[in-house]
């Protein structure tokens, strides 16, 4: 018999002989035995991995044996002739360019190779070309994944009848050789693996083993490419249990094989999910059907380490996390499939081969081989079941992998091919419990990174959440498993089974609860946070991928009425999980202060399934909503997020660093908003529509911390909010209410209407390219699919709302992309500022939209001034949400609106134009959504019955607008002016006595008496208690103790006292007076219906559509008059009473423009005087408080100080930490600057002739008469005849290589800058600048910079003098300059080297010197000459003044800004230079500053400033 070292000819002869013997009737058994012995010899592990030559020899033997002695190429051709496969199945790896056609695809993961795509018919389809991230395989020919119309010509043939049967002799040898070849490969894999617990294998060792085995795997891969016939043989070999059993049973005879088998058994341990102690618990624990299959318990000490292998290794790692930090999730014995809990048991080659593929972390060659086999349907089914069987083991290996990214891509490369096929996914779900396994594995995966939640009750909380700082979340290690889950949920049959299985829903809600409240933010109140955590990236990605995307997948199957039961199931178990969560965190009704989490996936599941139930399934909302107590709890945390957003934008969280702003922006960003802010607002809308409106409105203002501000007194004390934040928080509360009451995304809008509204909002902010618009429109319903709903209508909607601006070339040669810009009718009728506010990531985008809107109105001539945001009519509400209108018609809101209108009219502090805009918007919303059109008689009769308090008689805004309030009792500080007023003898109203009946008078007296002190907190508390009391005694026992302990009676602060405030106003009267105030005229409002009655019949007049505050007031008064005759009459009477009606005088447009200009100037002067007076009073009160001095001298000094002009210290904003303050010597602030060497000034010439480009060698581009050349000649000449020091005082340098200092204008603390530079050095991301050279980008505007110029501590007077425009004559300016030059010696610069400021000034001087080359800084013959250093510093000042002169158009005295909008930094630069110049002794006769700006006498006897190069031409 031929040996292993036989020649090629001997091998072929042996192979042919064996094949002939095996094919004959006699001698077949002997030939089979000989073949087996030969293969054992050739493929022995000692021979295989022993070296490259041995492996090559073994493979050559295999080729000869498989071909039966025939030439290998001939054998390959023969086998390919019998290929019956109709699938392409081409496998590719990462970065392969492939195609995806959404028109032809059934699965969203469908992909095609380039050849199949081009040979198919995809013209006009929605397709894209993409670079594969993880690898893939061509789906052409697979009707389960794509439609047959998209198949290419090669794979469109369905019948295999044309393919002849495979001759038995052709593959006879393959059936005998391949089992032993594959078994030898497995033995090599066993032998090469070392158990981590015994001898930790390095990645290098594993790589070496794989490298040796690569030819073997490549050989198998080549076999798969022979076609369907060979793949059938491979499938039979891989899946045959008999082959595996026969070859595995003989390992005892061979010592080497026995050793490898022992390694295999050790490797198998720990391959299941269950740990030793878990098995005991599972046997003891039993739970009834329908109860939760999870129990969470903490480990009180170190974990058991009795297990071997992976089990002990993982336990040790987990145990090191410490007591109280580690949580264990254990499944009960009711788990359907116990196979994943136990150690794996392999029955065929395929199972063990996949096992080792996982152990070796999915080597690419092995993955490609396994995928190349997929066109064989029998193999595909067997492999899918094997993959599911090993799913838990995949998860455990993935968690421990050091190359989790690469491994994740290769897992998805396999799984996407298996689970994209709906029929196969359904089969595996039924036969292998795929859904149970996936959910269980995900649970166990997250179990390793659970920590105790600190939300609400930090000490006693029983809730556990994922730790976003763990590598599992930071590196998105969970991504492949979640991706598989989303993939199978895209199949309707699988999703249906999931939604029907109550146990699975319970388990899934438990999984989602792990993310509920993760990444908790606690507000820093004292010190700025030392280290800004970036865990929020992981948190947002985890919620979107692990929670939201599966939710959208499930929602896509709940579109019809027949699926109502699915929604009921999800809502039921979601509410159960929410109740468990509330209990676990010990929540009653008040959120913990200064905490916020942006992650509430359970709330969002509940909200989105409610929305789908009403919109698509016609479910009655009330049948699936919980009781009122639960609704109250549900609304608290989403409301807390909205309030926290306002706090963050108000800089209340500034000490938490920039990451908190990053969270606020991500929460509303286009890829997240559909799964985060939209469900939150919808849930709040649902709660608001079912809860008591007064309770809800009170809760909103309490959460936004502005309750104390809502008083009609001129002074108030806010116990929970600093006065500087009150205005922005009030704006936030009102804006939130407008959003809540205006948005209809889930309350009645169709998908196309939503798409149009989203598109209009994005286009109004800025012109957009097609690609950026696609990216900014939120994806819905399933982000995984990449398909936008109504994508066919995307282009039609875009063409309807926008015009395309073609690409244009810019002057620099670059091309500007084509942009879409809104049509004129969109600005006119569809611009919705509410939608813009909702979708803006950056606040500047709202201003950008308003600026563009203003420009449109001016350009179209619709409104010349500065308009307010327009009011847009809303889509009608779905009947299920009509209760939301109650918010607009509740007394609490009317009291707030009345109070704010009164405060604005009385000029109380902290109220902005935005507040007024939102107040008017809410009033208009109320008038647009009036509950019923009441008659005057019914309303007046019913008022007495509805009179619950003395503010308003009822809840209808239309009637409450005309109700007069005479007196209000308020709680004010004892120093407030209201305290002096005595209570009135009578509280009756006389406003309408002339026109009302006696019954109306008496009713008015009752309703317009002294209003009680109004406390939103007390009102909310009272409503909450009322609703709680309706529930069971058990609920009372939970709620009562918590409530009584937290709250004291309102107004208990001893410094407050009660006062009676005379008001005598109604909302209508306040609006009319507000119109007078806004216009600046006493009789500005004239009811339009007195001249034209038609306005009452057709109130939608275009002139009211766009305008400012006066237009908004006029529109509201007109709507109020249209809805009620009594309102109309009262408006007329108020106008008559305030001033006799005078018809408006017609004035020309020129006169109107002049009047408007004068009015604006007058208003500006008034505002300025008011601000100055307020500032002086604040200063005085501060001084009185801070200095307890009673001497008359102090009083006199105080009066003198307040009477003098106030000089404030310059305040700078640090763009890194966000804090504002002055620059001090200990903690200086610096200006971000760019230091550049510039030779621009040296190119000016003493000639006006235009330059010409040189055309010959003799001509030069730099002529001899340039400024630089002349000064160079001058210095050389002087140094030849005079001493060095005199020469250096007589010349000026810097014409070539002068240092130019420019700034973006942003400031930062020097210490913050150093930390910033340190972080840039540690950042591994490739940057386009050198951090080691001090280069960086401004943290705010991202402009390039390389130094920081310290700001000298001083006052604003100096800066204002520098920046102010001067109207003085030239002679006076020259005289001032001369006087300043005489005072050079008194320049107030500290030269102490001990302060941080002086150190930074020295540092920046070094930067300036190092900016240019040494030859441009050292012109002295003696090295290190002080005269040379002085000359250089002088030249820096001159260079920057010269360049500033160029920027200002040749005149420094004009005070005008630079033509390019450049920000000057001369002030700070001169302070630095002055400090260094003071170190040198200067000859008193030599004044460089006089030389720098020397006044020269011109022929017309007028002095002008003359800079040294001003005589040169450019």
Descriptive overview:
By secondary structure, the protein is mainly alpha-helical. The protein is 51% helix and 7% strand. A 3-stranded mixed sheet has the order 16-15-17. The protein has a 3-stranded antiparallel sheet with strand order 21-20-24. A two-stranded antiparallel sheet has the order 1-4. Strand 18 and strand 19 form a beta hairpin. The radius of gyration is 41 Å and the shape is globular. The chain starts with 7 loop residues before the first helix and ends in an 8-residue tail after the last strand. The C terminus is likely disordered.
> What is the rounded distance between the termini?
98 Å
Beta strands, count: 26
| Distinct helical segment count | 60
Tell me, briefly, the overall form.
Answer: globular
Mean pLDDT: 77
Strand content: 5-15%
Low-confidence stretches at least 5 residues in length (pLDDT < 50)?
275-336, 781-790, 933-949, 983-1014, 1030-1054, 1140-1147, 1185-1207, 1357-1365, 1384-1392, 1455-1461, 1496-1514
Main sheet strand line-up:
16-15-17
Rg: 41 Å
What's the story with the biggest beta sheet?
Answer: 3 strands, mixed
* Class by alpha and beta content: mainly alpha
Supply the key terms.
1514 residues; mainly alpha; 3-stranded mixed sheet; 3-stranded antiparallel sheet; 26 strands; globular; disordered C terminus
In short:
This protein is mainly alpha-helical and 1514 residues long. It has 60 helices and 26 strands.
Write the SSE topology.
Layout: H1 8-23, H2 28-42, H3 52-67, H4 72-80, E1 91-92, E2 97-101, H5 114-119, E3 127-131, E4 136-137, H6 172-192, H7 203-224, H8 228-239, H9 241-249, H10 255-268, H11 276-284, E5 294-298, H12 309-319, E6 327-331, H13 349-359, H14 364-372, H15 377-389, H16 391-400, H17 404-419, H18 422-432, H19 434-447, E7 450-452, E8 464-466, H20 471-474, H21 479-489, H22 492-500, H23 502-513, E9 521-522, H24 535-555, H25 564-584, E10 595-596, H26 601-615, H27 621-624, H28 628-649, H29 658-668, H30 677-690, H31 693-703, H32 723-742, H33 751-765, H34 770-776, H35 791-801, E11 802-805, E12 808-809, E13 815-816, E14 819-822, H36 824-829, H37 833-839, H38 844-860, H39 891-905, H40 913-928, H41 936-945, H42 957-960, E15 965-973, H43 998-1007, E16 1010-1011, H44 1016-1030, H45 1033-1046, E17 1056-1065, H46 1067-1079, H47 1094-1097, H48 1109-1123, H49 1125-1138, H50 1149-1186, H51 1192-1203, E18 1212-1213, E19 1220-1221, E20 1229-1238, H52 1267-1281, H53 1284-1290, E21 1298-1309, H54 1310-1322, E22 1336-1337, E23 1344-1345, E24 1347-1350, H55 1356-1363, H56 1370-1382, ...
């Amino acid at each position: 018999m031929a040996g292993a070292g036989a020649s090629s000819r001997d091998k072929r002869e042996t192979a042919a002989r064996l094949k002939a013997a095996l094919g004959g009737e006699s001698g077949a058994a002997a030939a089979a035995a000989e073949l087996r012995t030969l293969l054992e010899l050739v493929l022995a592990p000692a021979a295989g991995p022993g070296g490259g030559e041995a492996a090559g020899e073994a493979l050559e033997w295999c080729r000869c044996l498989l071909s039966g002695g025939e030439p290998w190429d001939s054998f390959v051709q023969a086998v390919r002739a019998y290929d019956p496969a109709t699938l392409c199945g081409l496998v590719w790896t990462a970065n392969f360019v492939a195609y995806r056609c959404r028109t032809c695809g059934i699965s969203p993961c469908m992909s095609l190779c380039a050849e199949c795509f081009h040979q198919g018919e995809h013209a006009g389809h929605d397709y894209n070309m993409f670079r594969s991230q993880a690898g893939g395989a061509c789906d052409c020919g697979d009707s389960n994944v794509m439609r047959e119309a998209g198949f290419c010509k090669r794979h469109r043939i369905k019948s295999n009848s044309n393919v002849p049967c495979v001759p038995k002799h052709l593959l006879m040898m393959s059936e005998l050789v391949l089992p032993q070849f594959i078994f030898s490969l497995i033995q090599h894999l066993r032998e090469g693996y070392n158990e981590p617990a015994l001898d930790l294998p390095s990645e290098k060792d594993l790589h070496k083993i794989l490298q040796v085995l690569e030819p073997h795997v490549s050989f198998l891969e080549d076999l798969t490419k022979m076609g369907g016939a060979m793949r059938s043989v491979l499938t039979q070999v891989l899946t045959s249990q008999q082959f595996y059993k026969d070859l595995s049973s003989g390992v005892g005879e061979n010592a080497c094989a026995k050793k490898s088998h022992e390694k295999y058994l050790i490797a198998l341990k720990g391959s299941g999910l269950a740990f030793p102690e878990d098995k005991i618990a599972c046997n003891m624990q039993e739970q009834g059907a329908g109860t939760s299959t999870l129990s969470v318990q903490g480990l009180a000490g170190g974990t058991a380490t009795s297990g071997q292998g992976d089990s002990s290794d993982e336990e040790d790692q987990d145990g090191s996390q410490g007591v109280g930090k580690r949580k264990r999730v254990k499944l009960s014995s009711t788990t359907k499939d116990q196979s994943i809990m136990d150690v794996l048991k392999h029955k065929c080659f395929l199972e063990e081969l996949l096992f080792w593929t996982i152990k070796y972390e999915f080597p690419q060659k092995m993955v490609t081989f396994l995928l190349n086999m997929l066109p064989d349907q029998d193999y595909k089914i067997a492999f899918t079941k094997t993959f599911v069987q090993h799913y838990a083991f995949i998860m455990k290996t993935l968690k421990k992998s050091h190359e989790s990214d690469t491994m994740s891509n290769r897992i998805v490369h396999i799984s996407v091919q298996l689970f994209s096929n709906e029929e196969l996914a359904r089969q595996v779900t039924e036969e292998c419990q795929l859904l149970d396994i996936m959910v269980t594995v995900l649970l166990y995966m997250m179990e390793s990174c659970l920590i105790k939640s600190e939300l609400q009750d930090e000490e006693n909380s029983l809730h556990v959440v994922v730790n976003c700082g763990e590598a599992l979340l930071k590196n998105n290690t969970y991504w492949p498993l979640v991706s598989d889950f989303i993939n199978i949920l895209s199949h309707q049959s699988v999703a249906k089974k999931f939604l029907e299985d109550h146990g699975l829903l319970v388990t899934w809600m438990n999984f989602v609860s792990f993310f509920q409240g993760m990444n908790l933010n606690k507000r820093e109140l004292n010190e700025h946070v030392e280290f800004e955590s970036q865990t929020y990236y992981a948190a947002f990605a985890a919620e979107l991928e692990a929670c939201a995307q599966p939710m959208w997948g499930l929602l896509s199957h709940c579109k019809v009425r027949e699926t109502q039961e699915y929604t009921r199931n999800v809502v039921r178990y979601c509410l159960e999980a929410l109740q468990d969560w509330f209990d676990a965190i010990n929540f009653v009704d008040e959120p913990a202060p200064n905490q916020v989490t942006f992650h509430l996936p359970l709330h969002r599941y509940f909200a989105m399934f409610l929305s789908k139930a009403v919109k698509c399934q016609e479910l009655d909302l009330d049948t699936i909503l919980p009781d009122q107590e639960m609704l109250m709890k549900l609304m608290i945390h989403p409301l807390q997020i909205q309030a926290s957003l306002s706090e963050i934008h108000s800089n209340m969280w500034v000490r938490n660093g920039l990451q908190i702003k990053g969270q606020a922006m991500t929460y509303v960003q286009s890829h997240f908003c559909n799964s985060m802010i939209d469900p939150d607002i919808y849930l709040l809308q649902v709660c608001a529509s079912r809860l008591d409106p007064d309770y809800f409105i009170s809760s909103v203002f309490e959460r936004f911390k502005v309750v104390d501000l809502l008083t009609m007194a001129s002074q108030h004390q806010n116990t929970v909010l600093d006065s500087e934040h009150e205005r922005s928080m009030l704006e936030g509360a009102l804006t939130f209410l407008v959003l809540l009451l205006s948005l209809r995304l889930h309350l009645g809008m169709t998908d196309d209407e939503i798409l149009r509204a989203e598109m209009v909002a994005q286009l109004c902010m800025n012109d957009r390219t097609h690609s950026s618009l696609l990216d900014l429109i939120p994806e819905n319903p399933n982000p995984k699919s990449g398909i936008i709903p109504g994508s066919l209508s995307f282009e039609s909607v875009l063409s309807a709302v926008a015009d395309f601006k073609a690409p244009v070339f810019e002057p620099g040669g670059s091309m500007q992309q084509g942009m879409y810009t809104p049509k004129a009718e969109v600005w006119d009728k569809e611009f919705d500022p509410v939608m813009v506010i909702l979708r803006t990531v950056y606040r500047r985008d709202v201003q950008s939209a308003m600026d563009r809107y203003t420009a449109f109105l001016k350009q179209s001539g619709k409104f010349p001034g500065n308009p307010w945001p327009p009011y847009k009519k809303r889509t009608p509400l779905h009947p299920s949400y009509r209760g939301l209108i109650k918010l607009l018609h509740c007394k609490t809101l009317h009291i707030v609106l009345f109070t704010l209108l009164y405060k604005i009219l009385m000029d109380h502090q902290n109220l902005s134009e935005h507040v007024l805009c939102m107040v008017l918007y809410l009033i208009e919303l109320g008038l647009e959504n009036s509950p019923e059109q009441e008659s005057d008689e019914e309303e007046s009769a019913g008022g007495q019955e509805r009179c619950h308090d003395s503010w308003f008689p009822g809840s209808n805004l239309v009637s409450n607008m005309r109700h007069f309030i005479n007196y209000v009792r308020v709680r004010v500080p004892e120093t407030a002016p209201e305290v002096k007023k005595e209570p009135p003898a009578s509280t009756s109203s006389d406003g309408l006595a002339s026109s009302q009946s006696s019954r109306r008078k008496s009713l008015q007296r009752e309703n317009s008496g002294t209003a009680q002190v109004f406390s939103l907190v007390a009102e909310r508390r009272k409503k909450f208690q009322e609703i709680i009391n309706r529930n069971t005694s058990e609920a009372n026992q939970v709620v009562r103790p918590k409530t009584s302990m937290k709250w004291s009676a309102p107004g208990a602060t001893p410094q407050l006292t009660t006062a009676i405030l005379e008001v005598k106003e109604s909302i209508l009267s306040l609006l009319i007076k507000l119109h007078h105030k806004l216009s600046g005229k006493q009789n500005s409002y004239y009811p339009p219906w007195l001249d034209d009655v038609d306005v009452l019949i057709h109130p939608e007049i275009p002139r009211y559509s766009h305008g400012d505050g006066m237009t908004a007031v006029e529109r509201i008064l007109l709507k109020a008059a249209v809805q009620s005759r009594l309102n109309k009459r009262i408006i007329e009477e108020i106008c008559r009473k305030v001033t006799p009606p005078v018809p408006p005088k017609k004035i020309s447009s020129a006169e109107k423009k002049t009047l408007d200009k004068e009015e604006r100037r007058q208003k500006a002067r008034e505002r300025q005087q008011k601000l100055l007076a307020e500032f002086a009073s604040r200063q005085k009160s501060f001084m009185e408080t801070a200095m307890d001095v009673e001497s008359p001298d102090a009083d006199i000094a105080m009066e003198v100080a307040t009477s003098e002009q106030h000089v404030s210290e310059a305040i700078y904003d640090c763009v890194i930490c966000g804090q504002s303050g002055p620059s001090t010597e200990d903690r200086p602030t610096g200006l971000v600057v760019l230091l550049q060497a510039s030779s621009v000034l040296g190119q000016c010439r003493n000639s006006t002739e235009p330059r010409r480009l040189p055309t010959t060698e003799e001509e030069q581009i730099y002529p001899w008469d340039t400024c630089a050349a002349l000064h160079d000649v001058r210095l050389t000449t002087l140094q030849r005849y005079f001493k060095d020091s005199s020469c250096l005082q007589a010349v000026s340098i810097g014409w070539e290589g002068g240092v130019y200092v420019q700034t973006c204008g942003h400031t930062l603390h020097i210490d913050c800058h150093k930390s910033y530079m340190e972080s840039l050095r540690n950042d591994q991301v490739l940057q386009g600048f050198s951090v080691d050279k001090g280069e960086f980008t401004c943290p705010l505007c991202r402009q390039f910079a390389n130094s920081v110029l310290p700001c000298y501590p001083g006052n604003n007077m100096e800066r204002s003098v520098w920046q102010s425009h001067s109207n003085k004559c030239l002679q006076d300016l020259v005289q001032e300059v001369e006087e300043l030059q005489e005072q050079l010696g008194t320049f107030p610069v500290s030269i102490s080297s001990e302060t941080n400021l002086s150190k930074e000034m020295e540092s920046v001087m070094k930067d300036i010197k190092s900016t240019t080359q040494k030859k441009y800084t050292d012109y002295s013959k003696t090295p290190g000459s002080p005269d040379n250093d002085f000359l250089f510093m002088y030249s820096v000042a001159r260079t920057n003044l010269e360049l500033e002169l160029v920027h200002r158009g040749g005149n420094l005295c004009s005070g005008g800004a630079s033509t390019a909008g450049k920000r000057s930094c001369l002030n700070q630069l001169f302070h630095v230079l002055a400090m260094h110049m003071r170190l040198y002794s200067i000859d008193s006769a030599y004044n460089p500053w006089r030389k720098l700006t020397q006044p020269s006498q011109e022929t017309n006897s007028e002095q002008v400033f003359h800079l040294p190069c001003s005589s040169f031409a450019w």
